[in-house]
């Protein structure tokens, strides 16, 4: 099952952010299409997706965390990118979350997935990032807080193109790390963002739905 997206209102405390640039080795640069493929593959394997996507979780369990690349080549979002299975393996080898067996043509998570009922309490939903931000831009801003996963949220255009909608979900190892990230981001200047602990945000959404019933 693939990702769906919907508009969600901005909630929470105000945060400020400035876009940061870091020197990169040109050899590490991926083309825009290859970068989108890497981002999409990381999305399939992230903790939040595995907790809700029954198909991906089943494949993860059935293959003991060694999913054949051919499985992903059947997904609509990967088909739209029109890249080869070998290129998918290559971009996954560049991921800090994934590892590749080129001989067996399988892709695995580096860290074993474990169900965590308190994950959302250690995660932030941050909205308002510039729409032209890439996953590399997000990583440059947030990686200093040692997040477990940075998951960009998406919207789909009328022609089915998948675009960043300015929102991210960021999982941290502890509540202390989460609070430190909020304090650190507040000290930056630039684009205003809004942030809320993910469990609080989801509870508000549930309450809103109940009030409409």
Automatic annotation (TrEMBL):
Pfam families given for it? La, RRM_1
Please report the name of this protein according to its UniProt entry. Answer: La domain containing protein
Boundaries of every HTH La-type RNA-binding domain copy? 27-117
RNA-binding is among the record's keywords? yes
Q: Which GO terms describe its cellular component?
A: nucleus; ribonucleoprotein complex
InterPro entries the UniProt entry points to: La_dom_prot, La_HTH, Lupus_La, Nucleotide-bd_a/b_plait_sf, RBD_domain_sf, RRM_dom, WH-like_DNA-bd_sf, WH_DNA-bd_sf
Q: List the SMART domains hit by this protein, alphabetically.
A: LA
Where does the RRM domain start and stop, copy by copy?
122-204
Q: Name one GO molecular function term.
A: RNA binding
Q: Which UniProt keywords apply?
A: Nucleus, RNA-binding
Q: Which domain of life is it from?
A: Eukaryota
Q: Where in the cell is it found?
A: Nucleus
Which PANTHER family does its entry note?
ACHILLES, ISOFORM A, LUPUS LA PROTEIN-RELATED
Tell me, what is an example of a GO biological process annotation in this record? RNA processing
| PROSITE patterns, A to Z | HTH_LA (PS50961), RRM (PS50102)
